[in-house]
Design brief:
The protein has 26 helices and 19 strands. The chain is of the alpha/beta class. The protein has 4 domains: 182 residues, 4-Layer Sandwich (Glutamine Phosphoribosylpyrophosphate, subunit 1, domain 1), CATH 3.60.20; 223 residues, 3-Layer(aba) Sandwich (Rossmann fold); 100 residues, no CATH class; 73 residues. The strands form 4 sheets. Strands 2-3-1-9-8-10 form a 6-stranded antiparallel beta sheet, covered by helices on one side. It has a 6-stranded antiparallel beta sheet with strand order 4-5-6-7-11-12. It has a 5-stranded parallel beta sheet with strand order 16-14-13-17-18, with helices on both faces. Helix 2 crosses helix 4, helix 6 runs antiparallel to helix 19 and helix 11 runs antiparallel to helix 12. It is globular and about 75 Å long.
């Protein structure tokens, strides 16, 4: 909703207003409905506002309450407004038009540093408390909005994005070696486990689930939220669990529809986005509004090479949802002019750092552009659904039953499950045994899986001690581990480095296109409910993800709701899109292996060998191969380094 920025001087030296203006000038590349600043001798606050919610239209931000002596600038949408109004006893006549920033100030006045325990929504904000002579700020539990900062002995400065901070004197763009080492060494899409660091040595960030206190020349970060499963719910029947789910999920969806613009949504052929759209479409119909859906489909000439259980073109499934749910204006977008290669420079400019998600980069950018052109203010998605609403991995649940020797129940479940997905029982037993006893499985077939290439420079890895640090955090360096899915889920909510990437993407795209991506499956109320549901609600009678399948009866067509035989996969046509530029792609890869700066970070031999294997035979299935991942990540890192040099 806003890009925020500010400067605070620890000493008695007055703020140079020109420095504040330079910070705000760096935000001018983004569209804005209003730009305001507030300053005195020691404080400068600014806000580059994009009006998304009805209450934000015409909002005064930064806002200073002279009576309370509190100043706020905020990038925020609060979802539990009604609950907060009641707790804070806000007069009913004031509620409708009160912006979220003022609501946060009221909450801060009542609860002080504990304010974050009462806020549900997406936010990053900073408050100047003149009476206590301190800055206080926070970032929401999953980091859906970013907040970067810089500190030296004289000043503290913050901003929603990194670039404005470089307008201040004495801040350079020296790169952070530890961050880069982690980026290269981590096989998955996470960029770093060092949650308060960035790719730049002098620029820090406020991690998800953290508050920041700036006082007397010191900066203190404090974690305020650790999400853990509480006591398991004990309801009387499946029906009661389904009713309770629908109640909490409906609240999460409807509270994310507040906008004076259009409402849009990412829509695939699966359960997560389908559930979000179906609940949203019903709620909007009551307001005589229609939801706009945006769906990526492969280019026309693409021939699906994926496994028979995967679906690269989900259009038939999406259309099934659209026709069944109703009140949806659907668009199917293939972006034939875009490829993972063509959008690299654009994404580096947007992200302000290297990235790994090349498979989805082109269609994600394209959907934002289309939604923005359609006047969309809220763009819904179901990204966190795998860990919340559609949790329920049958094979992992069965592995638990096997380890507990609950053979009768397990046999019945495997029989039903095998029939549902159309495979032999012996095959299901094999997979369950492998998950239950992975050590024995790897002993009997140690070379069954290919490991992710170690493409970091050996000396660089040793100097940064990166492998030891990652292993201490439980990071699988092979990229192939069949880890306990329950532990992975716990890590998703307890280790904040898993959260940051989605927030970085969402914040920076939202500023560029003046719309806000929102995820009801990531609602704190939904997360807590789903963590507290007994495991047998998620897998029962041979049905995985059972709770969401049962709960969406009447909301989604059976073709989607009961589909256990196939799952969608995005970006499978990425290599096809690059064929016309394959030779320049290979030539650039060859050139970068001789770059001295890059060679200090990566192992040129690994990159060279990977080039040799693919250069003459581009195949569509390469898009997800480890070697191709290394080449794309190397190219993106190389382009980023050149981008920094030019700046």
């Amino acid at each position: 909703m806003s890009a925020i920025a500010g400067i605070y001087h620890f000493n008695n030296e007055p703020i140079n207003i020109e420095q504040g203006e330079e910070i705000m000038k760096a935000l001018q590349k983004f569209p804005a409905d209003d730009v305001q600043i507030w300053h005195n001798e020691r404080i400068f606050f600014g806000c580059h506002s994009q009006w998304i919610t009805p209450e934000s239209v015409g909002e005064q931000l930064p806002y200073y309450d002279y009576e309370k002596q509190l100043l706020i600038t905020a990038d925020v949408i609060i979802d539990n407004r009604d609950e907060l109004f009641e707790r804070l006893q806000v007069d009913r006549s004031s509620r409708k038009h009160m912006p979220d920033s003022k609501l946060i100030l009221l909450a801060y006045e009542k609860w002080g540093e504990g304010v974050t325990n009462y806020l549900i929504g997406d936010f990053a904000f900073m408050i100047w408390d003149a009476r206590k002579q301190r800055l206080f700020g926070a970032r929401d539990f999953s980091g859906t909005r970013t907040l970067y900062f810089y500190k030296n002995e004289q000043k503290f400065a913050f901003s929603t994005i990194i670039e404005p901070l470089f307008s201040l004197p004495h801040i350079d763009k020296k790169l952070n070696e530890q961050w880069l080492a982690e980026f290269i060494a981590i096989p998955v899409t996470s960029d770093s486990i060092t949650t308060d660091e960035t790719v730049y040595q002098q620029i820090k960030q406020l991690p998800p689930s953290h508050t920041i206190m700036v006082s007397k020349g010191k900066v203190e970060l404090s974690r305020y939220s650790t999400i853990v499963a509480g006591e398991k719910l004990k309801l009387k029947s499946n029906h009661e669990y389904e009713e309770a789910f629908r109640e909490v999920f409906e609240k999460a969806v409807t509270s994310r529809l507040r906008t004076h613009k259009q409402v849009g949504a990412h829509l695939s052929g699966g359960l997560d986005s389908g559930s979000v759209v179906s609940f949203a479409a019903r709620a909007l119909q009551e307001k005589n509004k229609k939801i706009k859906s945006y769906s990526y489909v492969p280019v026309v000439e693409f021939v699906d090479w994926t496994h028979r259980y995967r679906v690269a073109n989900e259009r038939p499934f999406i259309e099934s949802t659209v026709h069944y749910v109703g009140n949806i204006s659907d668009q199917y977008l293939s972006f034939p002019e875009l490829s993972p290669l063509s959008v690299i420079d654009d994404w580096i400019e947007t992200m302000e750092m290297p990235y790994k998600f090349y498979e989805n980069s082109y269609w994600l950018k394209g959907i934002y552009e289309h939604a923005s052109n359609d006047g969309v203010g809220i763009l819904l998605n179901g990204q966190r659904g795998n860990w919340t609403i559609s949790w329920g991995h049958a094979l992992d649940f069965y592995a638990v039953l096997l380890k507990r020797f609950k053979i009768l129940k397990l046999s019945r479940e495997i029989d039903l499950y095998s029939k549902n997905i159309g495979v032999k029982k012996s095959r299901t037993w094999k997979f369950v045994s492998k998950k239950a006893f992975p050590a024995l499985s790897s002993f009997f077939s140690p070379d069954e899986q290919q490991h992710f290439p170690v493409w970091i420079n050996d000396e660089f890895a040793k100097r940064t001690n990166v492998f030891e640090k990652l292993e201490k955090q439980g990071i699988d360096l092979t990229g192939t581990s069949i880890s306990n899915v329950y532990q992975i889920r716990n890590n998703q909510f307890q280790q904040v480095h898993f959260w940051g990437l989605n927030g970085t993407i969402g914040t920076k795209l939202s500023l560029r296109y003046s719309l806000w991506e929102r995820d009801p499956t990531n609602d704190l109320r939904v997360v807590q409910y789903c963590l507290n549901v007994p495991e047998d609600q998620y897998v029962q009678n041979g049905v995985d993800r059972s709770l969401i399948r049962r709960s969406t009866k009447g909301y989604l067509p059976d073709k989607i709701r009961l589909n256990q035989r196939s799952r969608g996969i995005q970006g499978a046509d990425g290599v096809n899109r690059m064929l016309n530029s394959w030779e320049p792609f290979i030539e650039e890869l060859k050139q970068l292996t001789t770059d001295s700066t890059l060679s200090e970070l990566i192992n040129p031999k690994i990159v060279h060998d990977s080039i040799e294997r693919i250069k003459n035979s581009p195949k569509p299935e390469m898009i997800y191969n480890f070697e191709f991942k290394v080449l794309m990540r190397t190219l993106i890192l190389y382009r980023f380094l050149k981008h920094v040099e030019r700046r």
